[in-house]
Specification:
6 helices; 70% helix; 2 strands; mainly alpha; two-stranded antiparallel sheet; single chain
Length: 140
């Protein structure tokens, strides 16, 4: 059974995930997590942004536009979005979307390693819950 909008097939019901599709999604998730970390690195170079005036926001925007880490992070987001579109042509969104949760796990672990962000017991428990949820959803 297919879903049609304006005569175009959008998705086929019950699409299963194969290894190729899994790798496309995983690549997109890794790129998305990397983008977060690159934006954080760029933000650290910019410093704290004041929301007090339009001139300070414009100054921060100009600073962000010239930060290589910010620009590279945005490129990673763009490529990640392209991979996501490819993945959605292959599997149902209800199959693919839970896999995005792995991005939280990847970003938290890398932020801990790269930026020294705390990885408390509560965060580790949350990461474990996310991983269990991804496995449960992936098997259903």
């Amino acid at each position: 059974m297919s879903t049609k909008v304006c005569g175009t097939i959008l998705a086929t019901d019950n699409q299963a995930m194969n290894l190729g599709t899994f790798l496309i999604i995983l690549s997109g998730v890794v790129l998305n997590s990397g983008a977060q970390l690159m934006l954080k690195a760029g933000a650290r170079n910019i410093g704290s942004v004041s929301m007090g005036s339009a001139s300070s926001l414009l100054s921060a925007a100009m600073g962000a536009a010239t930060q290589p880490w910010v620009l590279l992070g945005l490129v990673c987001y763009f490529v990640s979005a392209g991979l996501w579109i490819v993945a959605l042509t292959r599997v149902d969104v209800t199959v693919a979307y839970p896999m995005l949760s792995m991005g939280y796990v990847i970003a938290a672990l890398l932020a801990w390693q790269i930026f020294g962000e705390p990885l408390s017991a509560g965060r580790v428990a949350g990461i474990a819950i996310i991983l269990v949820g991804v496995v449960v959803l992936g098997r259903s």
